[in-house]
Amino acid sequence: MRLTCPLCGARDRREFTWIGAASLLGRPAPGGDFVGWAHLRENPAGPLDELWLHNAGCGALLRGARDTVTHATAPLTLAGGAR
Ligand SMILES: [Zn+2]
Hints:
The chain is 7% helix and 35% strand. By secondary structure, the protein is mainly beta. It binds zinc ion.
């Protein structure tokens, strides 16, 4: 599987670390459902918005959709947005 980093280009998946669903970016406010945010994960069969860390490349935190059945990926973008 190859992923395309917006900064480095197409790279082997082994250069990236899967972080989890992009819902991790939406940390709840104090008093919110912190336990659910920290411990409950989605596991859909189909498209999932995910976070990837390009740890063997530029170190950027990236966001993109991947189909969990076919592993087809959409282009990754910087998780924090363009700077
Ligand atoms: Zn990169």
